[in-house]
Write a structure and sequence with these properties.
The complex is a heterodimer of chains A (about 160) and B (about 220). Chain A is an alpha+beta fold. Chain A has 4 helices and 8 strands. A two-stranded antiparallel sheet of chain A has the order 1-8. In chain A, strands 2-3 form a two-stranded antiparallel ribbon. Chain A has a two-stranded antiparallel ribbon with strand order 4-5. The N and C termini of chain A lie far apart (about 40 Å). The chains are: A alpha+beta (about 160), B alpha+beta (about 220).
């Protein structure tokens, strides 16, 4: 699986520093953060899919995927925008005839958004190293939240 | 066939008036002899009847064959069946001659009959190869005149904003299903506009943490 920017939503504080960092680096932000129900903030950017569907309808092969890495050649791009319709996450945007999606800041060690995130919520890594038990950890947290608070003076066992 | 004949006669007359009489007669004869006859009778018949009917119904045929265009070498031929309305040609045209508008659930593309530049960028950029350039003599009457295509738009299931033409989505669906087999119900996102896709993904991602925090908040 290719490397990508992943978000730890329990850490994200919704400050949108990643958006600004991306804009500074790429002239327009390719990551977007929104706060849902005033409770949780969630950044969304290109998932760097293993089988990228955005490349499927490309008529001139401007978007292609080699060895799990997405390549975009602007000079071959016709600006038809079919890739934006094929992306299940809506993270490919056609702006002024050019496809804009997260390219993980080529030339930088870590993408600008990850380097900037003050809460350490953005992680640039392979999905395998994220910890396979992320669901289990979520479930544990959920359980802890569901437990009634321990009465004062006694320690929960 | 009647329509075809009429159109042919009209086309012939116009071009004859434009001093093309001899060329037409010679050119046509040659072409006809070269086996164009069969093509004309089979292919043209269908195209003509379908194409012309559509135009007649929509009432947007603009026989713009005035003196201005007769000097130009090449004319645009649009295949109304192939065009998916992706707007690539419109953004490629350096002159901005391909008009775009969206109203009443339809995307309208207005193609000029010809253009003064010799660039053919629109034809090269078209993903469906719906645009071709034909020479003035060799053009078929079905493709003459400036054409307006009206393509049906799909409305987003969530925000009900129209975001793409039905043909665009059909093409994307085909291309995607070649790459990944789509389970029934696994293609719900196709009916959402890109912005709503992003939102539904965000909601799904944040679902667990939202539930957790809601529970915490209530206790």
């Amino acid at each position: 699986m290719p490397e990508a920017v992943y978000a730890d939503l329990s850490r994200c504080i919704g400050c949108r520093a990643c958006e600004l960092a991306c804009e500074r680096e790429n002239k327009s932000s390719r990551i977007s953060v929104k706060v849902l129900s005033g409770l949780a903030a969630a950044p969304v950017s290109c998932r760097q899919c293993e089988i990228p569907l955005c490349t499927a309808p490309c008529p001139k092969g401007a978007l292609s995927c080699e060895n799990g890495k997405l390549e975009y050649e602007a000079e071959n791009c016709t600006g038809c925008g079919l890739c934006t319709l094929a992306c299940p996450f809506g993270t490919a945007v056609l702006r002024a005839g050019i496809i804009e999606r997260c390219n993980l800041c080529p030339g930088m060690e870590t993408p600008a958004c990850v380097a900037t995130c003050p809460a350490g919520a953005l992680i640039y890594t392979e999905p395998g190293s994220l910890g396979e038990n992320i669901r289990q950890r979520r479930a544990k947290r959920m359980n802890r939240a569901l437990e009634p608070p321990a009465p004062a003076g006694r320690r929960a066992e | 066939m009647k329509e075809m004949k009429e159109e042919m006669q009209e086309g012939m007359k116009e071009e004859m008036q434009e001093g093309m009489k001899k060329e037409m007669q010679e050119g046509m004869k040659e072409e006809m002899q070269e086996g164009m006859k069969e093509e004309m009778q089979e292919g043209m018949k269908e195209e003509m009847q379908e194409g012309m009917k559509e135009e007649m119904i929509r009432g947007d045929t603009k026989g713009d064959t005035s003196g201005e265009n007769c000097n130009k070498k090449k004319v645009l031929a649009i295949d109304a069946e192939k065009c998916i309305g992706c707007r690539a040609c419109s953004s490629a045209c350096p002159e901005g001659l391909i008009g775009l508008s969206e109203e009443g659930g339809r995307r309208n593309l207005k193609f000029p009959e010809s253009c003064s530049l010799d660039c053919e960028r629109c034809a090269l950029t078209c993903p469906e190869e719906a645009i071709t350039f034909v020479s003035e003599e060799g053009r078929s009457p079905a493709f003459s005149g400036s054409r307006t295509l009206a393509l049906g738009l799909m409305a987003c299931r969530k925000c009900s904003a129209s975001f793409a033409t039905e043909r665009e989505l059909e093409r994307v669906r085909q291309a995607v299903s070649l790459k990944v087999p789509l389970r029934p119900g696994g293609d719900f996102w196709m009916e959402l506009c890109p912005a709503c896709r992003q939102e539904s993904f965000r909601e799904k991602e944040a679902g667990a943490i939202l539930r957790e925090r809601k529970i915490k908040g209530n206790l």
